[in-house]
Amino acid sequence: MFDLLLRQCRLLQTDRTITETDIAIKGGVIVEIAPAIVGHAKVELAIQGQLVSPPFVESHIHLDSALTAGEPRWNQSGTLFEGIEIWRERKQNLTLEDVKTRAIATLKHQASQGVLFVRSHADVSESSLTALQALLEVREAVKDWITLQVVAFPQDGIYGAPQNNALMEKALEMGADVVGGIPHYELTREDGVNSVHRIFELAQKYDRLIDIHCDEIDDDQSRFLEVVTACAIRTGMGSRVTASHTTAFGSYNNAYAIKLLGFLRRTQINFIANPLINITLQGRADTYPKRRGVTRVKELWQQGMNVSFGHDCVQDPWYSLGTGNMLDVAFMGLHICQMTGTAEIDACYDMITWNGAKTLNIEDRYGIEVGKPANLIVLNAKDRYDAIRCRAIVEYVISQGKLLVKTEIPRTIWHGY
Ligand code: 17E
Ligand code: FE2
Fold first, then answer.
1. pLDDT digits over 321-333, tens only?
2. What is the set of domains in the chain, with CATH numbers?
3. Ligand with smallest separation from the Cα of 315
4. In the predicted model, what is the mean pLDDT of residues 392-411?
5. pLDDT tens, 163-204?
6. What is the DSSP letter of 248?
7. Which of 112, 114, 121, 150 is the most exposed place for a label (fewest CB within 10 A)?
8. How confident is the model at residue 227 (pLDDT cuts 50, 70, 90)?
């Protein structure tokens, strides 16, 4: 007797081919994948040829600031820097309850739309470390239905205020999974370089992953990615390191960018682009032509680098929109990065699924295979292209072998000619 049996799935397999099959789940694990499985289950779902995919991976979000748009005021300039100032005001009155309530509400929005793995930044440049403590508590509270990684993120810079360096280390002692950073917002270029060295030192001391907000600015002279690259080469930490945003990479001259790509290929660092947010935050100092302010996603992908897409914000001081839907993210990324070829569209789907799993270093638990944890989603679509084009509805979300969410597919009835 299985716990759950999914009949007639179009299964998107790890090798990205699609096969028509049933899937049986027992004890939270995928136990059989075969056409017309013999046997019964406590719950049987008729999938009727819909796409069954591994869940979406949200590789970059700020849950501590989610759902605060307009508090205490709206971001009128639309810039990153006004967002940081507004958040600095808002974070003065954070409480554990405030952060936890908003974070869990956001995680539920995400999970309802098929996200079961999330990496969130928690601002640790605030002396009570309330945001971090709250997200660590949330990580524990939600662990039966969604996996949360927490990044110790020094929003105001590791050297931006005297206590911040010690707060970073305290955050790791408290149990943050990932070391964050923001070199382009340190007071000087030297501080920025030093901050990257400090991040690698801390990650090695505490055996943690790294995810740095890196060069999130239109300044073509913002070149901390090369420092991250050098540290990744020298430490061999490659696949445990992520460079988030890297929007300045979109403004570098090609001679420099091509040299840098060569160095990058010697690492296995991960990139995260956040197209919804950076298309709105960047280019604000430009007249026309206005830059897109998104990193070189297509070129990085063509070079075989691991790139994922993140949502970054849901209704916060940097971005007042957003619902947590990863297909919106892939759709926007596809447009801005001009990834309209068929293989490119499929790659954009991978950027919200497998590539995110690689960034989070959870590949061993990810994908729909016998023996793996039963995490999967059923989409109202035939394939990856269809899913992105239609921003398909996620009809079922199955987390750790249990049915977590069912969403009814809306039905349109044509009454005209
Ligand atoms: N903080 C930051 O430095 N950059 C961002 N894109 C967000 C917060 C959302
Ligand atoms: Fe971010």
1. 999 999 999 999 9
2. 2-54+367-406 (2.30.40.10), 56-365 (3.20.20.140)
3. 1
4. 97
5. 999 999 999 999 999 999 999 999 999 999 999 999 999 999
6. G
7. 112
8. very high
Q: Which residue has the tokens 């105001």?
A: 156
Question: pTM here?
Answer: 0.98
Distance 89 CA to ligand 2 centre (A): 18
Ligand nearest to the CA of 279: 1
Residue 95, SS3? Answer: coil
* Structural tokens at position 333: 């990324």
Q: Which amino acid is at 398?
A: I
Segment 315-344 mean pLDDT: 98
Q: Output the CA 40–ligand 2 centroid distance in Å.
A: 46
The burial class, CB within 10 Å (0-12 / 13-18 / 19+), for 9 is: buried
Question: Which amino acids bring their CB within 6 angstroms of ligand 1?
Answer: 62, 80, 155, 182, 213, 216, 277, 312-313, 318
Six token digits for residue 210: 């790294």
Pure H helices in 274-413? 275-281, 297-302, 326-336, 342-350, 354-359, 384-390
Q: Is 216 a catalytic residue?
A: yes
pLDDT in tens, 56-106: 999 999 999 999 999 999 999 999 999 999 999 999 999 999 999 999 999
Ligand 2 centroid from CA 313, angstroms: 7
